[in-house]
Every structure is written in structure tokens, then in C-alpha cells.
Design brief:
By secondary structure, this protein is mostly helical. The protein is built from seven helices and no strands. The termini are close together.
């Protein structure tokens, strides 16, 4: 066994527990594709003035995002920390990125809630208690989840796309929504889907297969030679 080689492999392994998302990146791309495909199916079955339908749609969207977070953490513990917890504290740049990302997500959620619920010209004004509760929950939960569970640049970029599309998904269900009137915002929502899907799926699978090779190499290094 070569101690220097094993230490190098251990540092690479620790990155998967800290900043390399692997399969969760691929899963995130699939979730974003689902955001693109599902809205037309659900929205067409909802009354344009259905407040209850909009609230249910918002809740389902929140469950999808929360489900991705739970699946991400399960994959991290089940696969990428399967050889034991490797302590690898984040660098200063990673910590700064997480802080900036948290602030960005908070601003995004608050801007969305203010536009949809508080603006007198907004589509849901005056909002119901359920809608106010959902809006406030998004403003509190999304930044908190960002700060606690999002690690590394790749995962952060995917999280931005997930939050952007989750909020865009709900926005598309607003009464009176018309994509033709959205201009660049509508195109931005549409163009991010194939990038996030194919990018997340490809990079995530590459990272996962690299991890499997790394895990085999670590086990071979740890196996004593006769």
C-alpha cells in the first residue's frame, strides 16, 4: 500500500462528499425537464381562475424540489460517503459562493412573491391566506435549504436552475399568463431547460462513473498484499 497514493485518492474521494454532486446532478436535470413537460398537462386541466388549483400546483412544485433535496442527500450518504466520512472542509471560495448563492436565492424568492402576491396589479392580488403562507414559506425555506444543503459550484448552478424553473412553473399557472407577452423572460425559461437537462445528465453520469473507478482504486489500495 502506498500512503501518498492513498492520501491522494482520499482527497479526491472527499470532494464527492463536499462539492461533486454526481447522480444528484443528473437527477436534477430530469426534474427540470419534468418542470418543462408537466405544466401544459396540469395547467390545461385547471380553471384559469382556480385559486385552489394554483395553490395545489405550488404545493406539488415545492414537493418536487424538496424531493430532489432528500434524494440528493440520500445519494450522498448512500453512495458517495459509502467508504466512510472523509472530512474535507470547504474552501473560503466555496463558502463565499454559498453565501452569495443564498442571498441570490432569497432575492429571487422574495421578488417572485412580491410580484405575484403583493403587487396590486399582480395576478393573485389580493392573495388568500394559503397563498400568502406558500409565498412566505418559499422566501424562508429556499434560502435556508441553500445555506444548509447546497455544496459546490456545480450543485449551486443546478440549484439556481431548479429554483428558477420551480418559480417559473408556478408563474405559468397564474391566471391570465401568456407566454407571448413575457418576451425575454419566457425565452430564458425555455432555453435553460435543454442546457440544464443535457448538462446535468451528462456531467452527473460522468462524475458518478469516475467515482465508481475511484472507489475501486481505494479498495485495491487498502487491500493488503500477500
Amino acid at each position: 500500500m502506498e500512503p501518498d497514493r492513498l492520501a491522494h485518492l482520499s482527497r479526491r474521494y472527499a470532494r464527492y462528499g463536499r462539492s461533486l454532486p454526481g447522480l444528484s446532478l443528473a437527477l436534477g436535470g430530469v426534474v427540470i425537464l419534468g418542470f418543462f413537460l408537466v405544466p401544459p398537462l396540469l395547467i390545461n386541466n385547471l380553471s384559469g381562475d382556480s385559486v385552489d388549483g394554483w395553490s395545489l400546483l405550488a404545493l406539488c412544485t415545492a414537493l418536487l424540489v424538496g424531493g430532489w433535496l432528500l434524494a440528493k442527500e440520500w445519494l450522498r450518504g448512500r453512495i458517495y460517503l459509502s467508504l466512510g466520512l472523509a472530512e474535507a472542509p470547504g474552501s473560503r471560495s466555496e463558502l463565499r459562493f454559498n453565501l452569495v448563492l443564498t442571498i441570490l436565492i432569497a432575492l429571487l424568492a422574495c421578488a417572485f412573491a412580491a410580484k405575484g402576491l403583493l403587487d396590486p396589479a399582480g395576478p393573485l392580488h389580493p392573495p388568500s391566506r394559503v397563498q400568502m403562507g406558500l409565498g412566505l414559506s418559499a422566501c424562508l425555506a429556499l434560502p435556508a435549504c441553500t445555506r444548509r444543503y447546497i455544496r459546490g459550484v456545480m450543485e449551486g448552478l443546478l440549484w439556481i436552475a431548479l429554483c428558477y424553473w420551480a418559480l417559473g412553473f408556478i408563474w405559468m399557472a397564474f391566471p391570465g399568463f401568456d407566454m407571448r407577452k413575457e418576451g425575454w423572460r419566457g425565452w430564458a425559461i425555455i432555453l435553460t431547460v435543454p442546457i440544464a437537462y443535457f448538462g446535468g445528465l451528462t456531467v452527473g453520469l460522468i462524475q458518478h462513473f469516475n467515482f465508481l473507478r475511484l472507489a475501486r482504486e481505494i479498495k485495491n489500495q487498502e487491500t493488503p498484499n500477500d
